[in-house]
Write a structure and sequence with these properties.
Number of domains: 1
Largest sheet: 3 strands, antiparallel
Mean pLDDT: 91
Structural class: alpha+beta
Distance between the termini: 9 Å
CATH superfamily: Hypothetical protein
Helix content: 25-40%
CATH class: Alpha Beta
Strand order of the largest sheet: 2-3-4
CATH architecture: 2-Layer Sandwich
Strand content: 25-35%
Radius of gyration: 12 Å
CATH topology: Metal Transport, Frataxin, Chain A
């Protein structure tokens, strides 16, 4: 059976990314900018919507964006029902 995306709130996404070292550095309107320093010292930036419940397409898009910086096997349990 294929995995299903979880319905997440922005607060849950931000808390999950905080465990990977991302910190909110700015907010503008309904979006937050998260930043961390990568292993090689490069700056890694993500932008997250600040909604009570995120649409599934938004969760999927944010998951793909976060996979650029965090290994997929560590992110998958936070975003998908197994």
């Amino acid at each position: 059976m294929p995995s299903r995306l979880r319905r997440l709130a922005a607060r849950e996404v931000l808390a999950a990314l905080h465990t990977f070292g991302f910190e909110v550095v700015a907010t503008r309107g309904s979006h937050a900018k998260l930043r961390r320093r990568g292993p090689a010292g490069e700056t890694q930036v993500l932008t997250a919507p600040l909604h009570k419940e995120l649409a599934l397409g938004t969760v999927r898009a944010f998951y793909r964006q976060a996979c650029r910086f965090v290994p997929e096997e560590r992110l998958r349990p936070l975003f998908f029902h197994e």
